[in-house]
Fold this protein.
Amino acid sequence: MRIQEITLREISMKLVTPFETSMDRLEVRRILLSEVNVDGVTGWGECVAAEAPFYSPEYADTAWPVLSDFLWPMVKGKKFNSACEVWGLLKRVRGHNMAKACLEAAAWDAEAKQKGIPLAKLIGGTREEIASGVSIGIKDSLDELVATVKKELAAGYQRIKIKIKPGKDFQPVRRLRQEFPRIKLMVDANSAYTLEDFPLLKQLEGFYLMMIEQPLGWDDLYSHIELQKGLETPICLDECIHTEEQARAAVELGACKIINIKLGRVGGFTPARRIHDICLQRDIPVWCGGMLESGIGRAHNIALATLPNFSLPGDVTASKRYWAEDIISPEVTVSPQGTIRVPTGPGIGFEPRLDLIEKLTVRKERLV
């Protein structure tokens, strides 16, 4: 196999409703796409880097030059036997996992298309459908939050996750438990707290949460170890886990009981599968997180979530939750039971809508 050329695009997509976390409030998403020609077969990837360096140091304006100036030269003209070898070709670049995943995932899509099999099967997936949960941003009022949760439950989603931050934490969780005593409920802090907030985080245990996701610093493994010792509620790590070494350390040291695996955050399918296997061997459940992806990134997440240890509902949702019109055909849909069927066509199993992609494109570069 050989990557013959890459076309990079930045597209601009407006969210159906603004999405607020402890880090930022977002209305328009900047999304980088890679169209990779592998021996005449096209594979697609998506860079999930955010608009600003709030979730991680990497963001859209760093990802583009890393892809064009460093990652492309590392694979240009190189032969490899399968997409799983692409990660090794990129290892000289430290970090920049979201840029790497944009290229690496596209190579996996191309290989699956060459072989005429679904991407999920190529990576070792075992599921015909995946369980879908929903992530709800911070709302202006508790009534608005309750109304949103009612709507998502009616749509079939199996698990509700709400974003929290200091001042918008205890009251929203208490209200939801009063209104919905039996739902699967979790919270995501996106690193908004410190160990000094232990009394508050301990209070949340009274509401029978599935997990508390990334409560402390994005690179603070030690404090999560201390916090998990004092909590019965499982801590789920997200931002802290960028490599398989960090995943192994987190599990062995007791920093968490659950790990959220995001394809972009860890660098692609090859490292994601390694982290999955580490967790599987140690009975640590994993689930697939979301980064407000377009349909292309969403399709890759569906494939990832078919691996056997993805035993908890993830953040992979229907296209219409975020976009008035998605860039794939057909769009991703969720059943009334809160599941997504895994496509059976070759590669990601969805067709990129080139006409819409071109319409949304704000910059484009062909690398040969």
Q: What stands out?
A: The chain has 13 helices and 15 strands. The domain at 3-116+352-367 is CATH 3.30.390.10 (Enolase-like; domain 1). The radius of gyration is 20 Å.
